[in-house]
Amino acid sequence: MPGEDETDPVDDEELLFRRIPASMRWYTEGELSPEAFDPRTDETTGISFYRAKFTSLQQAAKGKSRGGYYVAVLRAGDLRNHGIRVVPRPALGNPGHAELPDLTCQNRLTPEASERKLRMAELCLRIEGPFPPATD
Amino acid sequence: MLETKASPLISSPLREAVSTSVVTDEPITRHYGRQSRARERWEALIDYQLIEWGRNPSQLEDEDIQAPSKMTIHLATLLAGALSKFDFPAPTRIVPDAHGGIVFERRDGNAFESIRLSAGGSVEYCFFENSRLVSHEHWGVIED
């Protein structure tokens, strides 16, 4: 979008997308498990989200999983209201990448992280999908 | 003539009620009915989920996510059996975590409970109320 810079701070009203592999059963029967926000091994500086401002749902749902994905939708301001920071971390080929630096694979089992994961599951506005696996 | 202390019109205390599916709302059988349903739930999770995962752990493999090993799934089955035996409330669901572990989750209104079996066999219990961690316990390590 003209005038939009991927390094701009994430506004409170911005929507964020978190990709959830369907095969992990973290979203079933209308319920979302906090484990959908468990940092992966490569999430060392914070769990990854996509900014809806720069990324479509279809783009957010593209990944290597053979089982396809769901996409969890959250609002940045809701996370900040519960003490969870959201920062832009654009990457090459991924301008809409953002991170939550308070939740990393190193601190994932601390009491604070456990609370944050549960809180995020409850702050989820909706789940989009399922999106089929990418064919390319 | 011997005198009995107990009235001949009152039977001795009932020690154990055998729960049937016919009457589950009467006070005398309600507790046992609830226990029976919980055990059925545990059995279903063990038979149709954990054992099935154990037969085909690759179904849990995914991008950048460590799937639980066969041993972890086996330990989870043992854990589930023990929790069922001790009448622990059955979980709402059992899910893998992103690091080779398995988590038993239970939600009840504003309360949320998780029992995490890590890939190394350690077991951790967490209880939350209104998303606040109220109780956090390390239960030790499970071995086969």
Provide a quick synopsis of the model:
The complex is a heterodimer of chains A (136) and B (144). With 136 residues, chain A is α+β, with helices and mostly antiparallel strands.
Structural commentary:
The complex is a heterodimer of chains A (136) and B (144). Chain A is of the alpha+beta class. Chain A has 3 helices and 8 strands; from the N terminus they run E-E-E-E-H-E-H-E-E-H-E. Chain A has one domain (15-25, 35-131). Helices cover 16% and strands 26% of the residues of chain A. The longest helix of chain B is centred in the first third of the chain and has 29 residues, at 27-55. Chain B is of the alpha+beta class and 144 residues long. Chain B has 2 helices and 5 strands, in the order H-H-E-E-E-E-E. Chain B is globular. Chain B has one domain (27-141). The A-B interface holds A 21, 23-26, 28, 31, 33-35, 38-42, 63-67, 105, 108-109, 111, 114-115, 118-119, 122 and B 59-66, 92-93, 95-99, 103, 105, 107, 112, 114, 116, 124, 126, 128, 131-133, 136.
Main interface: chain pair and counts: A-B, 29 and 28 residues
Estimate the mean pLDDT confidence of chain A.
93
Strand order of the largest sheet of chain A: 6-7-4-1-5-8
Assembly category: heterodimer
Q: Describe the global form of chain B.
A: globular
Portion of residues in beta strands of chain B equals 25-35%
Instruction: Indicate the structural class of chain B.
Output: alpha+beta
Helix content of chain A: 10-25%
Distance between the termini of chain A: 26 Å
Largest sheet of chain A: 6 strands, antiparallel
Percent helix range of chain B: 25-40%
**Biggest sheet, spatial arrangement of strands of chain B:** 1-2-3-4-5
DSSP, total strands of chain B: 5
* Tally of structural domains of chain A: 1
Number of domains of chain B: 1
Could you spell the SSE succession of chain B in H and E letters?
Answer: HHEEEEE
> Radius of gyration of chain A in whole Å, from Cα?
14 Å
- Report the radius of gyration of chain B as a whole number of Å: 21 Å
Assess the beta-strand content of chain A as a share of residues. Answer: 25-35%
Distance between the termini of chain B: 62 Å
